[in-house]
Structures are given as structure tokens and as C-alpha cells.
Amino acid sequence: MGIAVYDIGGEAGREPLTPGMVFACDILAVFPEENLGVRVEDTVVITKDGCENLTADIPREIDEIEAFMKEPEIIQLLKEKKLY
After folding, report:
1. For the purposes of burial, counting CB atoms within 10 Å of the CB of 21, is it exposed (0-12), middle (13-18) or buried (19 or more)?
2. Which of 17, 64, 67, 75 could form a disulfide with 59 if both were Cys (CB 3.0 to 4.6 A apart)?
3. Phi, psi (5° rounding) for residue 74?
4. pLDDT per residue over 36-79, tens digit each?
5. How confident is the model at residue 2 (pLDDT cuts 50, 70, 90)?
6. How confident is the model at residue 33 (pLDDT cuts 50, 70, 90)?
7. What is the domain extent for residue 72?
8. DSSP letters along 16-49, please?
9. How far apart are CA 21 and CA 29, in angstroms?
10. In contact, 30 and 42? CB cutoff 8 Å
């Protein structure tokens, strides 16, 4: 979770992970025959007991993503609840 793409900060990321640190863990799948690349990224926070994946529940399967894209946007939901 840096300022720039692949921002690793500090001493080239060699310091021990400590509670409160957050990082992105991503996998890149490349499909050259389709001229397509897909990056699946998780955001992970280090806790005193280990780590927690903050994005574990995001949609990942095609049907889940398509269903999510059909849902009202967050701003619409907030306006409906008079929170925005």
C-alpha cells in the first residue's frame, strides 16, 4: 500500500514485518493468445497474532464479479440512506 506502484519503502523492504504494516500480495496471470493480463491482488495487514487478509471476501469468480457489477454503486446506496 505504497505511494507508487511496487513501492516497497524503507530499506528495500528488508525490515521485519510488524503489527500495523499493510501490504499488497498480487498474482499476475497472462494470457498471451488473448493479449490479456489479469492481476488478482489481496491487501494484507500484519496483526499481533499473524496476519489478516482484508480483501478475502471480494468477488473473484466471473459470475460473482458480473453480479457485483450489476449492484448499485456505493454513492447511490449512501444517498438512499441519506448518509451522503
Report:
1. middle
2. 64
3. -60, -40
4. 988 888 999 999 999 999 999 888 888 988 888 788 787 788 78
5. low
6. very high
7. 22-80
8. PP-TT-EEEEEEEEEEGGGTEEEEEEEEEEEETT
9. 26
10. no
Pairing of strands 22-31, 36-47: antiparallel
Q: For residue 55, what are the contacts with CB-CB under 8 A and spacing of at least 6?
A: 41, 42, 43
| pLDDT score, position 51 | 95
Q: Is 72 a member of any domain?
A: yes
* Residue 9 within a domain: no
> Dihedral through CA 76, CA 67, CA 38, CA 29, nearest 10?
150
Asked if the structure places residue 2 within a domain, the reply is: no
Q: Using 50, 70 and 90 to split pLDDT, how confident is the model at 22?
A: confident
Q: How many domains does the chain contain in total?
A: 1
